[in-house]
Design brief:
Blueprint (H helix, E strand, L loop, with lengths): L1 H12 L2 E6 L4 E8 L5 E9 L6 E7 L2 E6 L4 E5 L4 E6 L6 E7 L3 E6 L3 E6 L5 E6 L5 E6 L5 E6 L3 E6 L4 E7 L6 E4 L5 E6 L2 E6 L4 E7 L4 E6 L4 E6 L3 E6 L4 E7 L5 E11 L2 E8 L3 E8 L8 E7 L4 E7 L7 H19 L3 H7 L177
Antiparallel strand pairs: 1-2, 1-28, 2-3, 4-5, 5-6, 6-7, 8-9, 9-10, 10-11, 12-13, 13-14, 14-15, 16-17, 17-18, 18-19, 20-21, 21-22, 22-23, 24-25, 25-26, 26-27
Length: about 525
């Protein structure tokens, strides 16, 4: 009976298993529960958008994100079955895709970067330079405050997601393949080849290590301290990290196991584990939690005829229609009424609800009888909310008019004593002096004139005696060349003009008779 109820519940949820393949395909399979408790997987869709092998897929709500060796992230809406966008942020093969809640997507690639996207807008909000040579795996703490990454540079890096920067680095001896957080967040696991190191967060160091004798290719927590591990072999192992004991191991596939996923519990005593292998098969296992030491039961399988690389589970959220809810509530009320043998009125009286507004005792209706604390006090005469309370006014009231500001303001212009109004009585410092007769501004103020005023005409005239370059003639009062200059040639007394009166020393003596230069001087001739 319990298996039938679980089967009906799973059928109503329309669980879908989606895988990415080496042949560049994304394939979806609808899970259907049979009457005998078995499951059947029917192909629901196929997409060939990538131009390289599909390395990782991640699902959150109605969105599916896929990344491949073509360095592109593709966004699909699983409700409408359409591709809604692409992201080209990395310059290398996509190595990991991780959703945290319904807000952020983390992507890593061989370019060594970790990109953080906001879900819905799909915009890159932050890019973290993580590892040299590429990032191999990324994991977010359940609280969303921390994250871990491992890469080809043989290091484990802890990230502070609140500040968006690296917290510290742990050096590893070898390249780690993947990193995983436990559901409570108290432990994290680092996979290195066939060995799994278990770290405790409180100590910050390895608590113990487990060697599974073959390379570990997939790992998942099915409970807080129990992990399911698949490797290059054909077996799946359940291991308890607290007791350090292997619980069970069973033969699952013929080739390496590439991915393990858990479908949430359909009952309190069991859960379903889905495994995908390179042999192209997908299998659904029923694990009984009360007897983990026993091998799980195979519920169903399907052959995809492709080499599977990654896998995820799509669980659409279905809401119960409003009409069905109303019918269920009405049915319950009707049954209660018939059992008690009372009418609808008696049921309403017995089931008193806590109303937001108190009931009026007269009308029994929800009226706001409760007296509220009014911001304004009530007037005792009219019982209405009037502003009776005298407030401390910033301006004092005029006792006569009870509303005018008595406080004398400092007026820009003084009051006229007769009219008690502002008038320009205050004498301003005028730029121009007032005319005493017209009381208007007039240019009476005597300016310092460049030229002195004429006393008779009161106008500017050139009376000021300038220093003349030439002296004035006393008779005509005009400049005349009276000043005697030092003449190069002496003046003639009769004509008052320059004449060559000055006797020069002649090279030849003058003739006394003709007053001309003649060779009168007799030179001694040597015999």
């Amino acid at each position: 009976m319990a298996e039938c109820e679980a089967a009906g519940h799973m059928a109503a949820r329309n669980v879908e298993i989606i895988v990415g393949t080496y042949e560049e395909f994304i394939i979806g399979y609808q899970l259907t529960v049979q009457k005998d408790g078995k499951v059947s997987l029917t192909q629901s869709f196929t997409d060939h958008s990538h131009t390289g092998s599909v390395r990782k897929i991640a699902i959150s709500g109605k969105f599916l994100i896929s990344g491949g060796s073509d360095e592109i992230l593709r966004i699909f809406n699983l409700s409408s079955r359409f591709e809604v966008g692409t992201i080209m942020e990395h310059k290398g093969t996509i190595t990991d895709l991780v959703f945290h809640g319904s807000q952020y997507l983390f992507s890593t690639a061989e370019d060594g970067n970790i990109c953080i996207f906001s879900r819905g807008k799909w915009e890159c909000e932050k890019t973290l330079k993580a590892h040299v040579g590429g990032v191999t795996s990324f994991a977010v703490h359940p609280t969303g405050k921390l994250a871990l990454s491992v890469g080809k540079d043989k290091s484990l890096r802890t990230w502070n997601l609140i500040k968006g920067r690296r917290a510290f680095i742990t050096n590893l001896k070898t390249v780690a393949d993947s990193v995983h957080w436990s559901p409570p967040g108290t432990h994290y696991l680092v996979v290195k080849g066939s060995c799994v190191d278990v770290y405790e967060v409180s100590l910050g160091q390895v608590v113990h290590s487990v060697d599974f004798k073959e390379k570990v290719t997939s790992l998942i927590f099915i409970m807080d301290d129990i992990i399911a591990v698949g490797g290059d072999g054909k077996n799946i192992c359940l291991y308890d990290i607290t007791t350090k004991l292997e619980l069970v191991q069973w033969d699952a596939h013929t080739m390496r196991i590439k991915s393990l996923r858990v479908i949430p519990r359909v009952a309190t005593e069991d859960l379903w584990l889905v495994s995908a292998s390179s042999d192209g098969t997908i299998k659904v296992w029923n694990i009984e939690l009360l007897s983990l030491s026993s091998a799980p039961k195979l519920l169903g399988e399907v052959n995809t005829s492709c080499r599977i690389i990654c896998m995820d589970i799509y669980l659409p959220q279905q809401k119960m229609p409003v009409s069905n809810v109303e019918k269920a509530v009405g049915y319950e009320l009707e049954n209660k009424t018939q059992a008690n043998g009372s009418s609808e009125e008696s049921v309403k009286q017995k089931k008193k609800k806590k109303l937001k507004k108190p009931l009026n005792q007269e009308t029994n209706e929800g009226l706001p009888i409760k007296k509220k604390k009014l911001k304004k006090p009530l007037n005792q005469e009219t019982n209405e909310g009037l502003p009776i309370k005298k407030k401390k006014l910033k301006k004092p009231l005029n006792q006569e008019t009870n509303g005018l500001p008595i406080k004398k303001k400092k007026l820009k212009e003084p009051l006229n004593q007769e009219t008690n109004e502002e008038s320009p009585v205050k004498k301003k410092k005028l730029k121009k002096p007032l005319n005493q007769e017209t009381n208007e501004e007039s240019p009476v103020k005597k300016k310092k004139l460049k030229k002195p005023l004429n006393q008779e005409t009161n106008e500017e005239s050139p009376v000021k005696k300038k220093k003349l370059k030439k002296p004035l003639n006393q008779e005509t009062n005009e400049e005349s060349p009276v000043k005697k200059k030092k003449l190069k040639k002496p003046l003639n007394q009769e004509t008052n003009e320059e004449s060559p009166v000055k006797k020069k020393k002649l090279k030849k003596p003058l003739n006394q008779e003709t007053n001309e230069g003649s060779p009168v001087k007799k030179k001694n001739k040597l015999l």
